[in-house]
Design goal:
The chain is mainly α. The protein has helices at 2-19, 23-58, 61-69.
């Protein structure tokens, strides 16, 4: 929850900063932010997929679900 608040505040401050940029500067900043966000999300997704596949191979799905429920 706290991380969500911190992220929102950060996004708001970046938004105010980008609002003062010209069109080219704003598009450059938005492109960099979008590319980095995509890379980080894709890496996190792939990590989750690999962990899920390992759990299924090891037959530890029930243990994984029990950890999620707690």
């Amino acid at each position: 929850f706290i991380q969500g608040i911190a992220t929102s505040i950060d996004a708001l401050s970046v938004g105010f900063t980008i609002a003062e940029y010209g069109l080219k500067e704003a598009l450059g900043a938005v492109t960099i932010i979008a590319a980095l966000t995509f890379v980080i999300c894709f890496a996190g997704h792939r990590t989750d997929v690999y962990q899920w596949e390992d759990l299924m191979r090891q037959g530890t799905y029930e243990l994984y679900r029990a950890q999620l429920d707690n």
